[in-house]
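pinned: reference chain
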Amino acid sequence: MTDGDRSSFRLNAVGLAARRGGRTVFAGASITVGPGDVFLLRGPNGAGKSTLLRALAGRLKPESGTIVLEGAGGDLAEASTLVSHADAVKGNLTAEENLRFWRDLYGADEARCARAVAALEIGAFLRQRASTLSQGQRRRVALCRPLVSGRRLWLFDEPSAGMDAASVLRILALIEAHAAAGGAAVIATHEPLPLNGARVITLSEAA
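pinned: its C-alpha cells
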C-alpha cells in the first residue's frame, strides 16, 4: 500500500485454530480489525501469540477457521507488515542499507525512509553495520520497517523488547498516529503498553 492509498479495509478472522509440534496451541480465536483499531494480544508463553500474528500476516495457514480481508486488495501479505521478535535486520548491512532494502522491497521513496529515520531517531548510527548495534538500536531499525512499507495493518511481536523507556514511548506515539490516519495494529506483548483506545485480546495456553 502507498501513503496515498486510504481505501477502506476490514480483516475478519473467525474461529482460528493452530497446531505446533503436534499439539493445538490455540482454538476458537476471532478478531475483526478495521481502520483505527489497535489490539494488544496478551497471554502466557506458548499460548500462540506469535503464531496468530503470522496467520494474520498471511504467512501461516491456520488449522481451521477463516481469515478474510475486505478491501486493501484482499491480500493479507500485501496489506500487512509483520515485525517479529526475530527482527529480520540483516547484520552484515548497515542500518541505512537495511532501510534501502525495505525501500526497494515495498516500492517506497526516499522521503518515506527519511521520515522513518527521523521518527525512530536512528540517524546517529545509520552507517554502522547492524551487527555492531545494541539490542535497542537494532530494534529501532527494525521498527522503521512498517513506516517504510506504507502498509495499512501493522503486526508487532513484543515491539518494546530491549528498548528504553523513551524509545517505547516513541513507537507507541507512531502506532497511535498510524491508527489516527486510518491504519490498524495488532501487538503481541507481555508489557502493559499505554496505547489510547487499545483493546485487549487474551490467548490462553491450550491444554
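why pinned: The helical segments are 49-56, 76-79, 95-106, 110-120, 135-142, 145-149, 165-180. Strands lie at 9-20, 23-33, 38-42, 64-71, 80-83, 153-157, 184-188, 199-202.
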